[in-house]
Amino acid sequence: MRLPLLASLLLTASLGITPSMAAPIDFTETSDIGGAGTLSLGALGVGVNTASGSLIEFDADSFTFTLLDGLQVDSLELFVSDHRDSRVSGTSVSYRFDDSIIGSLPDNGSLGLLSDPLALAGEYRLRVAHEGGIPNAFSNWRWNITVSQAVPEPSTVALFGLGGLLLAGRRRQAGLRPRPPTYA
Q: Are 126 and 71 contacting, i.e. CB atoms less than 8 angstroms apart?
């Protein structure tokens, strides 16, 4: 049995399948983006998206990414390595996610920023910076943003499935009735 076009589109939409998805982003800072304002990474793809770079002295790097409808961010992790400064202590690497999650890492290490998946489509901003104003500070940073397809609510899938079955049943009933001949 062949499903009508409308029913197959509804079924596809209910399962969260989209015709094309962006590939995961792998961005490496080649020149300082701190002085350039905010860099846009574009739409995240399904998989692990990475952005990495370095902070030198009073540097701050900021960029945005777009989360498309039907996708969700499962994890958002910040990794800091080679963190050093000219004193024993004083600097830390601060982070900011969309002005809602703010904190700092005092030394090398990693930190996961999300406790629940983020499934709200839109543009989000990430920032990483040296705090403490220490000359000769240096750090490498990397954001890992893991994205997957959002799973629809079971009731939504049930409603779309029921609608698809009703459309298929009506189509089948219409196919059983005799039709008048058409002449070309």
A: no
Return d(Cα 10, Cα 57) in angstroms, integer.
Answer: 54
With left for phi above 0 and alpha for psi between -120 and 50, is residue 33 left, alpha or beta? alpha
> What is the number of other CB atoms lying within 10 angstroms of the CB of residue 140?
16
- Convert 16-82 into a string of H (helix), E (strand) and C (coil): CCCCCCCCCCEEECCCCCCCCCEEEEEECCCEEEEEEEEEECCCEEEEEEEECCCEEEEEEEEEEEE
Indicate the burial class of 49 (C-beta count within 10 angstroms; 0-12, 13-18, 19 or more).
buried
Q: Strand 38-43 vs strand 122-131: parallel, antiparallel, or unpaired?
A: unpaired
CA dist., res. 139 & res. 77, Å (int) = 16
CB 144 within 8 A of CB 77: yes
Q: What pLDDT digit, counting tens, does each position of 166-184 carry?
A: 878 777 776 666 667 778 6
Residue 152 CA to residue 164 CA, distance in Å, equals 16
CB 150 within 8 A of CB 71: yes
Q: Is the pTM of this model over 0.70?
A: no
Amino acid type, 142: R
Positive or negative CA dihedral for 12, 13, 19, 21?
negative
128-158: pLDDT as tens digits: 887 765 667 788 889 999 999 987 666 776 7
